[in-house]
Amino acid sequence: MRKFKKALSVALVTAMAFTSLTACSKSNNAGSDGTSAAGGTTETSKSAVADKPTLADYGSGTIKVWVADNVVDFTQAKCDEFFKANPDMAGYTVEIQATGEGEAAGNMVTDVQAGADIFGFAQDQLARLVAAGALMPLTGYYENFVSTNNDAGAVGASKVGNTVYAFPITSDNGYFLYYDKSVVTDPTSLDAIIADCEKAGKNFYMEINSGWYQTAFFFATGCKLEYTADDNGAFTASNITYASKEGVAALKAMINLAKSSSFQNGSSVDKTTNLAAIVDGVWDSDAAKAVFGDNYACAKLPSFTVDGQNYQMSGFGGFKLLGVKPQTEQGKQLVCLALAEYLSNGDTQLARFNEVGWGPSNLVAQQSDAVKADAALSALAEQLAYTIPQGQYPGDYWTDATSLGDDVIADKYDNMSDDDLMKVLEDFQAREQSYAQ
Q1: Tens digits of per-residue pLDDT, 368-399?
Q2: Where do the domains of the chain lie?
Q3: What DSSP string runs through 79-125?
Q4: Taking the model in full, what pTM does it have?
Q5: Are 289 and 269 spatial neighbours (Cβ–Cβ below 8 Å)?
Q6: Are 165 and 108 in contact (CB under 8 A)?
Q7: What per-residue string of b and e applies to 68-99 under the rule 16 or more CB within 10 Å gives b?
Q8: What's the rounded Cα separation, in Å, for the pair 282 and 348?
Q9: Element (H, E) at 11
Q10: DSSP-based three-state secondary structure for 40
């Protein structure tokens, strides 16, 4: 706890100093039209409204950066560009290490002081990184930069409460609909998709015994599934509302889907047969193109109807974020923030998409011809507006969700009354709540 308090204290002191600088310093890295010093043009003009903090002398040193292995070379090239465009910060050198998003978060929480100064991580690790004092709160210019330049899902994923703690760099981890447009005539309605598949003797795939995909139904009807964890990663509280009329509606939708002769449980194109539609992610786009050929199409998830009420399918959304560790030296802190901004701006996101295919969170980059031409990313971007960023969940939740889905697939709940289904969900909710007591 002492380590956490010390790190958090540094973060707060630095944030206060950063805010005072913001009030009196003009940006030397962005023009009034939102362009960067390196000539980029994809940022919105709103990002230049707040003043960027500057110093006459930033000092010198080494900045340790952790990014995924497949973007190490890309990141090095972008860092070189940054320091060339900002010679007043060129007293710093960058040491880039290949560290996956999940591994980076674990390493930072274990030893913040020895960790990277700038690091990429998955959004479900945000709360524990904040609790460990591993992230600099973003205020003023940088808060505005994040909030105005990225899609709503990515902005939400970068926050704990109302505070922004990280720079979004992707909006590309979630699921949507791949379909055969010669079979599916209306991809906006699950009922219509199932009817088309049944008529054509084709299959619809969705992995409803997965805690990740299953939330597409429960979040759609308004159910909550939230956990609070302490700085040691222990779950201390929960907000779960599956045992409700909304939960019953979601479970009934799953039951109705499983009853269809066209339904098959699964989420991998390579493991399908007679496929007409599947709920899947961007990682399977090449496989879907190969199966559907000229009839390949993508869309956000459809809506479903239960007891006369229509619900838009939701689910988990995933984002990659870039974090900056609190520093004791103000000059290094400001250089780290400026570099993280550069590595997450629209031009860099678009270049990263072209290099390795990561889907941008930047609003302008999302509208580029190259990104819009990617049907899978476009469908996912539309779907992410309806999703909830995945947080931290107990391991037992995933096991319980699989069991619930297995029971649906085995027709265990067919013909049950709403009261009986409520009892099923009451038992499920009690188990999930017990993991945070």
Answers
A1: 999 999 999 999 988 988 998 888 898 899 99
A2: 2-172+318-384, 176-316+394-434
A3: HHHHHHH-GGGTTEEEEEEE--HHHHHHHHHH-TTTS-SEEEEEGGG
A4: 0.78
A5: no
A6: no
A7: beebbebbeebbebbbebbeebeebebebeeb
A8: 20
A9: helix 2-22
A10: coil
How confident is the model over 123-155, as pLDDT tens digits? 989 988 998 999 999 999 999 999 999 998 899
Task: Note whether 369 and 201 are within 8 A (CB).
Answer: no
Burial tier of 310 (Cβ tally within 10 Å: 0-12, 13-18, 19+): exposed
CATH class of 176-316+394-434: alpha beta
Residue 380, both tokens: 């996912």
Structure tokens at 166: 């990280």
Q: What is the CATH number of domain 2-172+318-384?
A: 3.40.190.10
Structure tokens at 363: 């609003």
Who contacts 34 (Cβ-Cβ below 8 Å, separation ≥6)? Answer: 41, 43, 44, 45, 46, 47, 48
Residue type, 81: E
In this structure, which amino acid lies at residue 221?
T
Instruction: Identify the residue whose tokens are 């860099």.
Output: 348
Instruction: Give Cα 111 to chain centroid, integer Å.
Output: 25
Q: 10 Å Cβ neighbour count for 39?
A: 10
Q: Which segments of 240-359 does DSSP mark as H helices, in order?
A: 245-259, 285-292, 330-344, 346-356
- Quote the CA–CA distance of 421 and 117 in Å, as a whole number: 50
Bridge partners, residue 312, by sequence: 303
Domain 176-316+394-434 in the same topology as domain 2-172+318-384: yes
Alpha-carbon span 197 to 252, nearest angstrom = 20
